[in-house]
Design brief:
355 residues; alpha+beta; Immunoglobulin-like; five-stranded mixed sheet; 8 helices; 10 strands; 37% helix; binds dinuclear copper ion
Length: 355
């Protein structure tokens, strides 16, 4: 009776776990539906190790069941001692050799995949982007194209993109589950790997290393577009001049407030300077800002007035952060939402999340 109850509990537990995990399956945020080269090579390893370990499990269970049934102590055998096998060279050799062979079967492809993803020999034939982690946002520097963005990483589909990862403060970890495995982002060295997206779409990226109070809010997006659209985006970004924007009077006032409040001393818009805060060049096209917020005027006003409330311990609110009224914050929000350098945006690619 107890045995059956235990089994029912185990089944219920397993069922709930499966149900819970199936919620992790959104196509733009799961390593289990690979959409890029690194994720596919990880998935191949997952399948290989799962098959090998399942085979081990099945064989062990089979042997256990056979032994339990065949070699039960029977009536009249109370004093019977089976044949002892300790010290058997044959048996010791077999059960030492089998695990070693299994480990080799799993280790060789794993090590090969690791070296492959970190191989930078061909980097000169491909696009190179420097990724810098900050508490709690990401900066992307398109070295070859002289473009800078934050939070949104645009890449062309079907092409290798080499990423040089470094940190300006503490340890972070760069992870786009659908496209590639994690790679550490360190202050003291540069780690390099490449990614390649197979399909157009907006992929969710995460920081995967506990880096402070807002670690869980350190999200970013990868927008994979067709190579033609990518070239268009590069052109648009390169020729974008925020001074040439046609603004209505409210947004124009917002622009002046943005400058008067010295926002520019931390935030670059476009290619200038080495920013302390996120580059706002394509701010109006972002699907999220501050990593996690919908880009509505209301959210922006809340953010500008008290960023610490939303994202604890972020570096925006320094000691003499200006007092900004709700009205002024609203005008600045209107201006920031006008920063749309390109027709190519996250809206121009298929929405994988809804599939
Ligand atoms: Cu950066 Cu966690």
């Amino acid at each position: 009776m107890r045995g059956w109850l235990g089994k029912t509990k185990a089944l219920v537990l397993l069922g709930s776990l499966l149900l819970l995990l199936s919620g992790c399956g959104k196509e733009n945020l799961t390593a289990l539906v690979p959409k890029g080269y690194g994720a596919q090579s990880s998935m191949d390893l997952i399948v290989l190790t799962t098959v090998v370990m399942s085979a081990v499990f099945l064989v062990v269970v089979l042997i256990l069941v056979v032994v339990l049934i065949r070699f039960r102590k029977k009536k009249g055998q109370e004093d019977f001692i089976p044949k002892q096998v300790e010290g058997s060279v044959t048996l010791e050799t077999v059960w030492t050799a089998i695990p070693i062979i299994l480990v080799i079967i799993m280790a060789v492809p794993t090590v090969m995949a690791e070296f492959d993803l970190a191989d930078t020999e061909e980097r000169d034939d491909h696009r190179n982007i420097t990724v810098t982690g900050y508490q709690y946002w990401w900066h992307f520097d398109y070295d070859d194209d002289e473009i800078q963005t934050s939070q949104d990483l645009y890449i062309p589909v079907g092409e290798r993109v080499y990423l040089d990862l470094k940190s300006e403060d503490v340890l972070h970890s760069f992870w786009i589950p659908s496209l590639a495995g994690k790679l550490d982002v360190n202050p003291e060295n540069v780690n390099t790997f490449y990614i390649e997206a197979y399909e157009e779409g907006v992929y969710y990226g995460k920081c995967a290393e506990l880096c402070g109070a807002s670690h869980a809010l350190m999200d970013f997006k990868v927008i994979a577009v067709s190579p033609e659209d990518f070239d268009q985006w590069v052109d648009d970004m390169q020729s974008f001049d925020p001074e040439e924007l046609e603004l209505d009077s409210v947004a124009q006032e917002g622009k002046e407030l943005f400058e008067a409040n010295n926002c520019m001393s931390c935030h670059a818009i476009g290619g200038s300077g080495d920013p302390l805060g996120p580059n706002l060049a394509s701010f109006g096209d972002r699907t999220r800002f501050a990593g996690i917020l919908d880009p509505t005027k209301e959210n922006l006003v809340d953010w500008i007035m008290d960023p610490d409330e939303i994202k604890p311990d972020n570096k925006m609110k320094f000691d003499n952060y200006p007092e900004i009224s709700e009205e002024d914050a609203g005008k600045m929000a209107e201006y920031l939402m006008e920063l749309k350098p390109s027709e190519i945006t996250p809206d121009t690619v298929p929405d994988l999340a809804s599939e």
